[in-house]
Amino acid sequence: MPDFRLPDLGEGLTEGEIVTWLVSVGDEVSIDQPVVEVETAKAVVEVPCPFEGVVSARFGEPGEKLAVGSVLLTVGDPGPESSEYSGNVLIGYGTSQTTRRRRRPRESDARTASVVRSEHPSSTLGTPEPATIPPARAAAEPAGGGSGSGTTAANGSAPAVISPLVRRLARENGLALDRIRGTGPGGVIRRADVERELAARATPAPAAPAPGRRIPLRGLRGAVAAKLATSRREIPEATVWVDVDATDFLAARAAMPSVSLLALLARFTVLGLGKFPELNSRVEGDEVVVLDQVHLGFAAQTDRGLVVPVVRDAQSLTTAQLASAIAAHTASAREGALTPTDMTGGTFTVNNYGVFGVDGSAAIINHPEAAILGIGRIIDRPWAVDGQLAVRKVAQLTLAFDHRVCDGGTAGGFLRFVADCVESPITALADL
Question: Which pTM was predicted?
Answer without folding.
Answer: 0.60
